[in-house]
Amino acid sequence: MNIGTIQFDKYPVFLAPMEDVTDISFRLLCKKFGADMVYTEFISSDALIRHISKTKTKLEIKDEERPVAMQIYGREVEPMVEAARICEEARPDILDINFGCPVKKVAGKGAGSGMLRTPEKMLEITRAVVRAVNIPVTVKTRLGWDHDSKIIVELAERLQDCGIAGLTIHGRTRSQMYTGEADWTLIGEVKNNPRMHIPITGNGDITSPEACKQAFDRYGVDAVMIGRASIGAPWIFREIKQYLKTGEKAPKEPFEYYLSVLKRQILQSVNRLDERRGILHSRRHIAVSPLFKGIPDFKPTRIAMLKANTVKELFDIMDNISSNFVTF
Ligand SMILES: Cc1cc2nc3c(=O)[nH]c(=O)nc-3n(C[C@H](O)[C@H](O)[C@H](O)COP(=O)(O)O)c2cc1C
Predict the structure, then answer these.
(1) Which of 10, 171, 245, 253 is the one with CA 20 to 30 A from 105?
(2) Alpha carbons 124 and 207: distance in angstroms, whole number
(3) Which atom of ligand 1 is nearest to the CA of 207?
(4) Which ranges constitute the DSSP H helices of 133-208?
């Protein structure tokens, strides 16, 4: 499978773009564990063209993480075109447009999944961005705005006509936000539409090697994108890739191994930001890591980890977690 000139092996698995999660250190970690492509956090076109410094840090990419897709969002053609050009200068392999974000401050203003209510505008932006840059442009979107407007099958054809090199579909409507289950049947319908020829990446609720294999087999997608299941568990890419390749599940590593991965991740965040911000940034990963699921009476330890203010404090707590009970 190819996106533009980028070639992928069979069964590519991508790290989803996630605000406040897929910064450069997490992307590199997921890459090391086998993610075939990683996505930056979304970048506001308005903030980028106003040279907001926090936004500009999102342009930093490293060669070791390639191929990397950089994602932008916005609601007007001109700022999106300008932002696309700024992103291109940062040399990502792909420029991705976000037409899927459901959060109110984005979708409510007509950007992200808000564009599902104004498909003509979505197509206008897509055409203009494709024309503006020389790298492949892809789109990530949802099934539709709500249950009564699941427009993705027709929309996918029209996006393809704009010249995009690939399309990612999250199997929910905007109204669903992240509730209920992702519906992959419409993703499969887009993929199996004989008029479609660009690669289709499926996304939504893939949390295990088996679910990923099923997504490929049942819906025929060209790639699968993993989001939440990688938070606090970047090793999921290795587990999934191994299963896709061999049909066998990789044996679990000792508890201490996974703990060391999380610790390394925390240290990387601390080195990149500073101790306070690095720890704050890592909390989301610690809070949801499956590593700690099923440990009896774990709540006080979890709270202590989430309250720790220094690396030493945090690592001391982590080192004291008994692996005896771990069922992970
Ligand atoms: C914390 C968080 C931040 C997200 N930020 C973005 C984003 O910046 N751009 C985007 O396209 N999707 C974003 N998403 C959506 C994910 O890319 C993905 O579509 C969603 O999590 C569903 O996939 P999953 O079921 O594998 O998690 C975000 C999701 C989460 C949970």
Answers:
(1) 171
(2) 35
(3) 26
(4) 152-161, 185-191
Q: What is the pTM of this model?
A: 0.97
- Among the listed residues 87, 101, 162, 212, the single catalytic one is 101
Q: Which helix (H) or strand (E) holds 138?
A: strand 137-142
Q: Tokens representing 208?
A: 């295990």
**Any residues with CB less than 8 A from the CB of 166 and at least 6 apart, and which?**
3, 4, 94, 136, 138, 139, 198, 199, 200, 201, 222
Q: Give residue-wise pLDDT tens across range 38-67.
A: 999 999 999 999 999 999 999 999 999 999
Task: Please provide the size of the chain in residues.
Answer: 328
Distance CA 145, CA 107 (A): 10
112 and 73 in contact (C-beta within 8 Å)?
yes
Query: Tens of pLDDT along 74-131?
Result: 999 999 999 999 999 999 999 999 999 999 999 999 999 999 999 999 999 999 999 9
Please give the Cα distance from 102 to 100 (Å, whole number).
6
Separation between Cα atoms, residue 242 and residue 40, nearest integer Å: 24
What residues are in contact with ligand 1 under a 6 Å CB criterion?
16-19, 21, 41-42, 71, 98, 100-101, 140, 170, 203-206, 226-229
Please name the residue that has the structure tokens 């789109």: 139
C-alpha–C-alpha distance, residues 247 and 328, integer Å: 20
Residue 17: both structure tokens together: 């773009």
Q: Count the neighbouring beta carbons within 10 Å of the beta carbon of residue 132.
A: 17
Amino acid 233 reads A
Helix (H) or strand (E) holding 73: strand 68-73
- Quick one: which atom of ligand 1 is closest to the CA of 100? 11
- By C-alpha distance, which of 125, 111, 34 is closest to 73? 111
Please, how many CA atoms are within 13 Å of residue 14, restricted to the half-sphere of its CB?
A: 29
Contact 191, 221 (CB under 8 A): yes
Task: Determine if the peptide bond prior to 67 is cis (ω within 30°).
Answer: yes
Going by C-alpha positions, the residue among 289, 294, 297, 286 that lies closest to residue 327 is 294
Q: Is 121 helix (H, G, I), strand (E, B) or coil?
A: helix
